[in-house]
Amino acid sequence: MPSLFRFLFVLGVLVALAYGAMFALVVFVEPEPRPMTVTIPADRLNPVRITVPAPPPVETDEANTETAQ
Prior knowledge:
This protein is mainly α. It has helices at 2-28, 42-45, 61-68.
């Protein structure tokens, strides 16, 4: 049982050190704002849309017989 307490104590100390380091980073480090440039390809701005043309109307014998009369 003493080895379990020792393990948990060491683990707690390590966790406390990690949280202390994170807290120190939050408090003492100030981020520097700087401009950011992102290049966007032209084909993403104006994509070319490819449309499939409609098929031509199919002529049937009924249409030919009506126009012939």
